[in-house]
Amino acid sequence: MKSSPNIGAIASLLSKSNVKGSPKAETVSNTTGQILDIPLDLIEFDNEQPRQDIIEDEVYDIVRTLRVEGSKINQPITTWPKNSDGKYVIKFGEKRTRASRIAERKTIPVIIDERYDYGNERHRAINFAEQYVENNARGGLTRLDDCVALLKLKELFGNLKDVAKFVGAKSQGTISDKIKVSEIKTNPVYQFLLDFYNDDSLKFKDLTNLKKIIETFRKNPNHFDEIKKRIITSVNEGIFNRQWIEMLSSVDFDNENLAESVKSTKTKKKTKSKNIDAEASGYKVRPVKKAKIMGLVSIDRKKQRCQLLLDRIDDEEGYIWVLVDGEEEPIRVSLSKLTLTELS
Fold this sequence. Notes:
Elements: H1 7-16, E1 36-39, E2 43-44, H2 56-66, E3 77-79, E4 88-92, H3 94-102, E5 107-112, H4 121-138, H5 143-157, H6 160-167, H7 172-181, H8 183-186, H9 191-198, H10 207-219, H11 224-236, H12 242-249, H13 258-267, H14 278-281, E6 284-285, E7 294-299, E8 302-308, E9 312-313, E10 319-324, E11 331-334, E12 338-340
Helix pairs in contact: 2-3, 4-5, 5-7, 7-10, 10-12
């Protein structure tokens, strides 16, 4: 098992390189202090950097400045030393590099950070920490990139306490919540959530909502397909919102099996006259959990504990469905015979 980089060592190196909390982290000089013009075809992007979503408009803002006669990149990019393939992997400056390529520049000014060795795992961890600090200081991370980066920082540091200390967060809980949300990008089973997130026509970017959805999936691993179906239905019907998610998260999927309930109702023998056939009554089922509201209810002047089945809507106005405490089957009750009293 690989050991996690020591946060003390990382913090020390960050401090020495003057990068902690500084948006100008990339201006650290190499051992020679030289700014080199290096051919763009020798520059490689870092596919593991915290910032994964590059905003094209920001790149083209740089492109427009580069197309002005006599213009140049004023702030050099920073790279690792040349690797075994003869390429320089970017530490800071991906947007400038992309813009230079689009503007058909041949070279780009580079500062080579010779403090670290790309082949050293601890050095790569330190580099990722530096990149996170730099991007965070500039506000360069999208909310989802921030979540994924915090997940990687936890993997690098080994615990939330050190991550919170490093990023200056007051609450480990906030970091934990963001790490949960990162799953919609890192876990392939949540691809449908990522598709919704990336659709700007949908209101699907609230991190609190996404966290609750992930928690609902985790809490009900045997009901993944059912939960996914309900979410997709809610989005298609335009009812996906915080209130709907709260209702979804309250569902007891293990005890809610509507299909079996209907099947049982079809085949059961007639019992007490109050147990009316659910299918015959034509109640409709919403794609949400029945609310567990227990209280003292008077039916025909007889006080009983019952559960209101708010996911069952009777076709006939004036009727509601309840599950009386101790009974296995729900019953249909006229509102005129139902009296709610103080909840217990």
